[in-house]
Every structure is written in C-alpha cells, then in structure tokens.
Amino acid sequence: MDIGVLLSKLGSGMLTSFWIFCITLLLSIPLGLLITFGRMAHNAILRTITKIYISIMRGTPLMLQLMLVYFGPFYIFHVNISSTYRYTAVCIGFVLNYAAYFAEIYRSGIESMPIGQYEAAKVLGYSKAQTFFYIILPQVVKRILPTITNEVITLIKDTSLAFVIGVTEMFTNAKALASGMSSVMPYLGAGVFYYVFNFVVAFVMEKFEKKLSYYR
Questions:
Q1: Is the four-CA dihedral 198, 199, 203, 204 of positive or negative sign?
Q2: Which of 81, 126, 175, 206 to pair with 189, CA 20 to 30 A apart?
Q3: What is the pLDDT of residues 80-125, one digit of tens each?
Q4: Are 65 and 57 in contact (CB under 8 A)?
Q5: Which CATH architecture is the domain 3-212 placed in?
Q6: Do the Cβ atoms of 196 and 215 come closer than 8 Å?
Q7: Neighbours of 123 (CB within 10 A)
Q8: Cα 72–77–81 angle (5° rounding)?
Q9: How far is 159 from 157, CA to CA, in rounded Å?
Q10: What pTM, to 2 d.p., does this model score?
C-alpha cells in the first residue's frame, strides 16, 4: 500500500479520535465542576449520590461503561437503537467517565485552599459565589493544571476504546490496515499520530501553566 494512502486512512481515523477528544473535554470539564459541587454539598443525600457515582465511574473500566451505554437501552429498556447511536453513546460514555475524574481533581484543589481565603473574602464583602469564582477558582486552576494535563493526555489514548461499540477511530483503522498488509507499519504510523497529538497537547498545557505562574 502506498504511504500516502496509509496516512490518508489513518488521518481519517484521527479525525474521529479528535472529535471524541474535543467533545469529551468540552462537556466533561464543566460537568465535573457541577459534580464537585454535589460531592461537597451540605445535603447528605446529594453528597452520597455523587460519591457513589464517582466511585462507580472510577472503579469500573471505561470499555465496560461504553458497552453499557450503547447496549443498555436495548437490553434493559427494550428500546430499539439506530446504528448512528454508537456515536452518541461514545460521547455519553466518555463524558460521564472523565467528568468523575475531573470532579475529584477539582475537589482536591478546592479543599487544599486555606480557610483564611474564605474568611478574608467574607470580610471584604464578597458573596459565596463571588468568593469561589473570583478568588478560589483561579487559584485552584493553577494548582490542578498539571493533574488535568495528565488526564487530558490519557484521554487522547483512551479514544482508541471507542472501537468496542463499532466506532472506527484511528487505532481501529490501523488494526484493519495491519491485518490487510501483514505489516506493522500501520501501527507505527498510528503511534506517530498519537505521539504528535500528545506532544501538541502537552506543549499547549505547559504554556498555560507558565502563563498562570505567579513567579517568573
């Protein structure tokens, strides 16, 4: 197979991996913050529900969660699902899984803030919402950014799990090409694509870390 054709097929799969990555980040980051609020709520019922949710999402494989989201409506509720639902299922599965991880990262960052920050803001007349969004959250983001970067890099590699419900992303294309060619070249090509993607993300996140650094 011509190298151009190989790169073209891997590139088309990379586009699928890329939109899974983008949608997951776009939705799971704010959802994770909402889950954090529930996890730290004074209401015991809400706190327990979110704690159980996080425990399940972190304690079971993402592959299993994807299969449950995709096949669950049919086998549990006897709802007929279309072939296009697999793309929606991938988004739901990835967003729900990563939101749980982000929620715990947020929680650890928020709980690491000194109580004096809240007391000082109260003395200055800030409301609870103003204190959180104007004073606490910017500092939390700075503290948790390295951990967020690790999760984002893991997400790039986890997009390969979409194959389990029939979504053809880059690694699935690489496996099909390697089988047809009886060669490891497609795997090497996929490895290069993943590495470049991870390198770009790590570079961008490092720039953000430096921008947020208080010390030059």
A1: negative
A2: 206
A3: 888 889 999 999 999 999 999 999 999 999 999 998 888 888 888 9
A4: yes
A5: Orthogonal Bundle (1.10)
A6: no
A7: 8
A8: 65
A9: 5
A10: 0.91
